Amino acid sequence: MAAGALNNLAGNDDNKITIAAAGAIPPLVQLLGAASTEVQKNAAGALRNLAGNDKNMNTIAAAGAIHPLVQLLGAASPAVQKNAAGALDNLSRGAANKITIAAAGAIPPLVQLLGTAAPAAVQENAAGALVNFAMNDDNQITIATAGAIPPLVQLLGTGFSAHVQREAAAALNNLALNADNQITIAAAGAIPPLGQLLRPGSDDLPKRFAAHALKVLGNNAENSASIASASASASAGVDVLEAIKRLCI
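Given the sequence above, the corresponding structure tokens read:
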């Protein structure tokens, strides 16, 4: 019950500071290993919210939260998976944490959580964590090697929520900063669905990320030609090149 109350209270910015100052972080980390799924869910949720504060982010990592959170990515409960992925997402805003979390083995289970069998909230948090991890050059390679690109491309499709599409497009954008990944992403069929996200009337949430992903992919000559071809296609329903120029200001 205490972890559940802290989970709710930690959604408030001032409370993030107060709860951490009261010494809540170490016991919350201990509760990640509890036998109760409900306790695990609330402890991971509280740490997810607390990690939205930069100082807390470092304190949580130093308290040893990363390894048990990575373990909880494989929990049977989607609610536990969602909160663990969300906590790792927030923790990975720190440059050092990006390396530590990847070294703890988080990337393969996060890739697994991108699958279509996972609930949308789990997919969103898993993709969001990969967005942050992929800001690190080495992680860009590790994430691609773990097989993240095909499921991320699939999450761009019309059957997924705008929130999931946004995180998938953002993750592909960061992964495309690696030249080899530019080829792999295009080969996985990312260009057409990214272009579709730019259509008039489509949800605004993923548009800018889709435009930036296409812009980075266009650094490869073959991809640039494919993007130009998609822009010229009447079936696209949008001038892709114009949309990229407009949205990538």
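The first helix runs from residue 2 to 9. Try to locate this feature in the token string yourself.
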